[in-house]
UniProtKB/TrEMBL annotation, chain A:
This is Two-component response regulator. It comes from Brassica napus. Residues 1-21, 154-206 are annotated as: Disordered. Transmembrane segments: none annotated. It is found in: Nucleus. Residues 171-183 have a biased composition (Polar residues). Residues 208-265 form the HTH myb-type domain. CDD domains: REC_typeB_ARR-like (cd17584).
Length: 632, 145
């Protein structure tokens, strides 16, 4: 694993690698996906010769499930464009959104249009077959670059500057210097993170990259600015000016905008049916969204609906929501979050859910329609709102700046400052931008969970009413749990639900599937409550499972109609994600896993089985957090 | 013996059956993986035989789903280029071109060429590997890094 701490920089190990003690890039964990066995064999051999740790895979679905199962298991993905089971570009999107890993595309096709497609879908490079080993020798640069960018995207301008400097000097400076600057930057970021929550101090220290936490409010501001400028014309500089947020850098905005754009694109393209886009977008992106804690479930709901809520966030939200609805998020914030969420969701969900609500508003309106509507219904208390908010945040964050942003969103919610912190910390600790964040999120949850457990319970009661929130919450917590596992499996301390624990143990693979998580959450919740939640879940789960089309319809129906639907909506939101998930399809196995792991899953499993829907990670469109992890 | 092997290999290159990609593969061969190239070639021929079958069947059906045919051929071409099967690759490109314009006749004709080159290469490589194995590891495991 690429360790920023140890990554002295390009000169340290890469080039000849002999002089430095830093073995990097040796040991780089590469996942290569190609349906052609000959090419796969050759690539594997070449990568091994480069001293990378190679995992090969001949199907995209398997690759995705592998990635989901080991959130931090890989540094970079190389994928062929033409594959029978899934288009390489789709895989690219998923990975980018869910795991935020650099992806290199390759193909025998060297036509400009295909290469361009690779670029627009976010590939960091495009190799023409036959691939030569020279081309593979330098793929580590993409990993380093990404990490550096993440580092820089910090809401703490100080850190950013430092990193910026570091960046410039990095290549030229000695490894020692690099290391120093890395460490100092990192430290600073960690410190900052600590300030926020201080819970996961240890996480912070291990955190490799601090991320900007795109709180719900922040994201709302961002979206407002973008809309004002016009999505196509919005440039980071102007957005930054309009937002007028001290400490926010242009890079932060740029990165967030990029994610946001991808998110929108996916929404537009897939809206109808596949929540995948949203899902992946959201889930994969930032663990930062994780701090769902603030989302008391309310947010979760919203998020779930939006599908934006990343698994983490959902979990957190749930945790937050569940634990203590009131405390979690500031009511005010909830609202904001919601709106944020609405923004996000509409876009993503656009096809999926929003129809009922937003109608054609792609962008934000949809979101508004959905979450808002749902929220009131679902969440009787403020706690729920919180979740939603968080979710929204997450979604927001997800869309644009997956990594950090998500966390940002969550954190501010205020429900769980500690949680947020944890999240951040967690995120930081995980050098890998993507997963780590999620982990962070999970961490936070535990903390939040404890307090929130109470909330959670409360929430459950509400769940029946608002299926949605519940669904999301559970999912969130679930996802959270998974992440938590890595951080500190406080176990269901917070939640006081067994499910929580379960989640922890559950692999992170579901994190991506926010939707799923939501569902799971619902399920878990059910176990506690044996309420309609489960019912909701089933509906949700089913929804999720179904491919986009299904989900969408289902979701839509659910969201807007009565409360009971909400409950479903919870699932629906999950569904939205599921749409996304549907695409990924890798989830089904995961889902099962999930179920197996968690006792509470029984309910869920049953539901899910009925549905026959895979517990895809995508379920939650929330910002790509795969709530899926929620092993309901 | 080794000299003979070297000569055979050289002729394969000279005649255009193999291109520099094959040399890339040889570079990957070392003491740890002494038969890497042969293994890859074996895998290639096995997999491409499957593809050829699929294309044959598709052509026999007479429906001429050019998209599908092109997909098969794209994959086939990718494999072939990965091991450096130069002539095969050329024929694949032609086939795809015929697909692109929807020329069924051209497809059929070119596909015969593809098969022919494929079979020829297979024979030649089998012969080459056989000799190389006999000649001893030095020849096959040469790694000019």
């Amino acid at each position: 694993m690429l360790n920023p701490g140890q990554g002295r920089g390009p000169d340290s190990g890469v080039a000849g690698g002999s002089s430095n003690s830093d073995p990097f890039p040796a040991g780089l964990r590469v996942l290569v996906v190609d349906d052609d066995p000959t090419c796969l064999m050759i690539l594997e051999r070449m990568l091994r010769t480069c001293l990378y740790r190679v995992t090969k895979c001949n199907r995209a679905e398997i690759a995705l499930s592998l990635l989901r199962k080991n959130k931090n298991g890989f540094d970079i993905v190389i994928s062929d464009v033409h594959m029978p089971d899934m288009d390489g570009f789709k895989l690219l999107e998923h990975v980018g959104l869910e795991m935020d890993l650099p992806v290199i595309m390759m193909s025998a096709d060297d036509s400009k249009s295909v290469v361009l497609k690779g670029v627009t879908h976010g590939a960091v490079d495009y190799l023409i077959k036959p691939v030569r080993i020279e081309a593979l020798k330098n793929i580590w640069q993409h990993v380093v670059r990404k990490k550096r960018n993440e580092w820089n995207v910090s809401e703490h301008s100080g850190s950013v500057e430092e990193t910026g400097q570091r960046e410039d000097g990095d290549n030229n400076s000695s490894s020692a210097n690099n290391e120093g600057s890395w460490r100092s930057s990192r430290k600073r970021k960690e410190e900052e993170v600590d300030e926020q929550g201080g819970d996961d101090k240890e996480d912070a220290s291990s955190l490799k990259k601090p991320r900007v936490v795109w709180s719900v409010e922040l994201h709302q501001q961002f979206v407002a600015a973008v809309n004002q400028l016009g999505v196509d014309k919005a440039v980071p500089k102007k957005i930054l000016e309009m937002m007028n947020v001290p400490g926010l850098t242009r890079e932060n905005v740029a990165s967030h905008l990029q994610k946001y754009r991808i998110y929108l694109r996916r929404l537009g393209g897939v809206s109808q049916h596949q929540g995948n886009m949203n899902h992946s977008f959201m889930t994969g992106q930032d663990p930062s969204f994780g701090p769902l804690s603030t989302l008391n479930g309310f947010d979760l709901q919203a998020l779930a609906a939006a599908g934006q809520l990343p698994a983490q966030s959902l979990a957190q939200l749930q945790a937050a929501g569940l634990a203590r609805p009131p405390s979690l998020s500031k009511p005010g914030m909830s609202v904001d979050q919601r709106s944020i969420f609405s923004f996000e969701n509409p876009k993503i969900r656009h096809g999926q859910m929003m129809n009922s609500g937003g109608g054609g508003n792609k962008q934000m309106n949809l979101l508004h329609g959905v979450p808002m509507g749902m929220e009131p219904r679902q969440f009787a208390g403020g706690g729920q709102m919180r979740v939603q908010q968080q979710q929204q945040q997450l979604s927001g964050g997800r869309a644009v700046g997956q990594n950090v942003q998500s966390s940002g969103m969550m954190m501010p919610v205020g429900g769980g400052p500690s949680m947020l912190q944890q999240q951040q910390q967690v995120m930081l600790s995980s050098s890998v931008p993507r997963r780590s964040e999620t982990s962070s999120g999970s961490r936070v949850l535990p903390a939040a969970a404890t307090t929130q457990s109470v909330v959670f319970n409360n929430f459950s009661s509400e769940l029946p009413r608002n299926s949605f929130p519940l669904a999301s919450a559970p999912g969130i917590s679930v996802s959270y749990q998974e992440e938590v596992n890595s951080s500190d499996a406080k176990g269901g301390a917070g939640f006081g639900n067994p499910s929580y624990d379960i989640f922890n143990s559950y692999p992170q693979q579901y994190n991506n599937n926010n939707d799923w998580d939501l569902q799971n959450m619902g399920m878990v919740f059910n176990s506690h409550q044996d309420t309609t939640a489960s019912a909701a879940f089933s509906s949700s789960s089913s929804t999720q499972r179904t491919r986009a089309e299904h989900v969408q319809n289902h979701h839509q129906q659910q969201q807007f109609p009565s409360q009971s639907l909400n409950h479903m909506n919870g699932g629906g939101s999950v569904r939205v994600k599921s749409e996304r998930v549907a695409e990924t399809v890798t989830c089904p196995p995961a889902t099962t896993l999930f179920q197996e792991q968690y006792n509470q899953e029984d309910l869920m499993s049953a539901l899910l089985k009925q549905e026959g829907l895979p517990l895809v990670d995508n379920e939650f469109d929330f910002d790509g957090y795969s709530l899926d992890n929620i092993p309901v | 013996m080794q000299r003979q092997v070297a000569l055979i290999k050289q002729s394969l290159f000279d005649q255009g059956y193999l291109d520099e990609q094959f040399m890339e593969l040889e570079e990957l061969q070392d003491d740890v993986n002494p038969n890497f190239v042969e293994e890859v070639a074996t895998l290639y021929f096995k997999d491409s035989a499957r593809l050829i079958n699929s294309i044959d069947q598709a052509l026999e059906r007479g429906s001429f789903d050019f998209n599908r045919l092109d997909n098969y051929m794209h994959q086939f071409k990718g494999s072939s280029s990965s091991i450096g099967a130069s002539k095969v690759k050329t024929e694949c490109t032609m086939f795809r071109e015929y697909c692109r314009v929807g020329n069924a006749e051209g497809c059929l004709m070119t596909f015969q060429q593809v098969k022919k080159e494929h079979a020829t290469l297979r024979k030649k490589l089998e012969h080459y590997f056989q000799l190389a194995r006999q000649a001893g590891p030095k020849e096959t495991a040469r790694r000019s890094k």
